[in-house]
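Complex 283.
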Amino acid sequence: MAHPLQIRAEILEISQVGAYHRMVLRAPGVAARVRPGHFAALAVGGADSAMLLRRAFSIHRADPDAETISLIIAEAGRGTRELLRARAGDTVDLVAPLGTAFPHPAGATTALFVAAGYGSAPLFALAEQVIAQGGSAGFILGAPTADRLYGVEAARQLTPDVLVTTDDGSGGIKGQVTLPLAEAIKAISAEAVYSCGPMGMLRAVTEIATAEGARSFCAVEQAMACGVGVCMACVLPVVGEDGVSRLVRSCVEGPCFDGTRVRWTDVGTIPADLHGAAAMGVR
Ligand SMILES: Cc1cc2nc3c(=O)[nH]c(=O)nc-3n(C[C@H](O)[C@H](O)[C@H](O)COP(=O)(O)OP(=O)(O)OC[C@H]3O[C@@H](n4cnc5c(N)ncnc54)[C@H](O)[C@@H]3O)c2cc1C
Ligand code: FES
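Predicted structure with flavin-adenine dinucleotide bound:
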């Protein structure tokens, strides 16, 4: 648990970055608590809004000196549309940081960062930590189309080992991020793969990374309601260190998981061998 704060945060900047929007928030006390992988939950629509649920966004950057955090937001539906109508100087109700962070890489390690679209947002700060510790980093950044890639230039400023994929071939290799993954792991001798994107991608990344002998750590984007561990809307079947499978809340026990512990094929179900499944009426 990241010891979140709830504050009224001033929007310092809201700007278009390709297909996305970057929102910079003044968040006193929050930035110093943020570790790569944490997320923020923003209220939308004001006090009288029918949109009761907060919207979750990975924290892209946190600057403890400036007391700011930034988010990369894609317009998805009513809530994000409303949020993106805000202007610099407006305030937003923010709870952050939330969830678990990616495990901090020990010593000098070689890590590959794999993301789809805005999924790259939480990965850059971690890549910088890896490099600062004497390790090295590579990236595979993908999207359906070139305009939905995020952070390609930022990645290239960190490392020459950057591959780009698009489903339609409008940028980089035609295909998904998993296409060049096995070769990329071999090419840089990656010990760990950190990924963020849709569940199907995270599952495939974990399978390939594991087959290549690398660790796999994923930030899942499971639909959330409360974001703080109360409603159980975000549960995933995960195998614990004791070998027992449980439904765990991706908002508090995640969103960052060891990918080999998530039962990807059982997501959205209650497997019969799950701890407590019988009590839930599953035979
Ligand atoms: C841990 C986490 C990190 C995320 N990071 C980012 C990010 O960095 N940038 C970004 O643009 N988006 C991110 N998302 C997705 C973002 O939360 C949804 O796009 C947003 O909630 C959609 O709200 P909406 O009202 O515009 O869309 P609607 O579809 O109208 O949303 C309706 C409801 O469904 C839920 N919902 C809809 N889509 C998603 C989704 N893909 N994931 C989870 N909940 C969803 C919302 O919470 C909301 O309650 C993240 C989600 C999670 C869980
Ligand atoms: S979203 Fe409510 S418990 Fe996770």
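DSSP finds five helices and 16 strands in the chain.
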